[in-house]
Amino acid sequence: MSEIVLNSQHIFRKEAGRNSLKQNEYLNLPDLQFFNWCNQQYRLNRGIYNTIDEWFYHYGIKEILSRRIYILAFLGFVQETEQESDQHKFIRFGNRGLTKQLTEFIAIQDKESKQNKKSSVMRSHFIRNTSKLPE
Fold it and tell me: Model confidence over 69-107: pLDDT tens digits?
């Protein structure tokens, strides 16, 4: 699979350019191995990982593979926005920073999803209307 299609698709296009998530190899690992991989890639401690996973679960992403896709997309988002990435052993969020960044990430994903749906509706409307034009 060269591209994962969810609200977070733009994050995974970037990932796909690097290693295509090795055909979902990491998404299907047992939980501890998936966490260890995330830790190696994003310098993430287990408590933060569990909190992110639980937050997405309570947000409504119940399926584990979908939730892992969101977790990876979120971690990529955090990594892109983190300025002092090499100065700490683990990603740090500060007081209420994790919830703030999760909320910001979801807002961006929701906005992009709505824009994509609107563009899709506009394209299909345009195609329908132009197909009715006389030649």
Answer: 999 999 988 888 775 555 566 677 777 789 999 999 999
The stretches of the chain forming alpha helices (DSSP H) are 9-18, 21-24, 31-42, 46-59, 64-81, 97-131
Q: Distance (Å, rounded) from C-alpha 78 to C-alpha 94?
A: 13
* Residues 6 or more apart in contact with residue 44 via CB below 8 angstroms: 35, 38, 75, 90, 91
Token output for 118: 């609107």
- Whether the full predicted model's pTM is greater than 0.90, yes or no, is no
Which residues neighbour 100 within 8 Å (Cβ) at sequence distance 6 or greater?
93
d(CA 17, CA 72): 15
Write down the residue that tokens 């990435």 correspond to.
85
Residue 78's nearest CA partner among 13, 11, 9, 5 is 11
**In sequence order, what are the residues at sequence separation of 6 or more whose Cβ sits closer than 8 angstroms to the Cβ of residue 16?**
2, 3, 4
The per-residue pLDDT of the chain, averaged, comes to 74
Return the DSSP state at 6: S
Q: Are 64 and 34 in contact (CB under 8 A)?
A: no
